[in-house]
Amino acid sequence: MKLGAIEAGGTKFVVAVGNENGEVLERASFPTTTPDETMKETIAFLRIRMLKLLV
Fold first, then answer.
1. CA 45, CA 40: separation in Å to the nearest integer?
2. How many CB atoms lie within 10 A of CB 15?
3. Against a cut of 0.90, is the pTM above it?
C-alpha cells in the first residue's frame, strides 16, 4: 500500500509518498506561496508519484 503525506506550514510545504512500513519512498519541499499555487504544486507531486507507483 502506498500513502501520500503533506506537512503544511507557513513558510514551506513538505510532501511525500511512503509505504505501510513507514518508509519514505520520495519526498519534496517547496515554499508556501498563494493557496492556489501551493495546492497545485502539492496535487501535481502526489498525482504523478502515486500514479507512477501504481504501475
1. 9
2. 21
3. no
- Which tens digits make up the pLDDT trace of 26-53? 999 999 999 999 999 999 998 888 766 5
Sheet strands (E) in the chain: 2-8, 12-19, 24-31
Question: Nearest 5°: phi and psi at 13?
Answer: -115, 140
What gap in Å lies between CA 23 and CA 38, rounded to an integer? 25
Q: Which three cell numbers stand for residue 44?
A: 501535481
Residue owning grid cell 519534496: 28
Whole-number Å distance between alpha carbons of 2 and 38? 22
Cβ atoms of 52 and 1 within 8 Å: the answer is no
Angle of CA points 10, 49, 46, to nearest 5°: 35
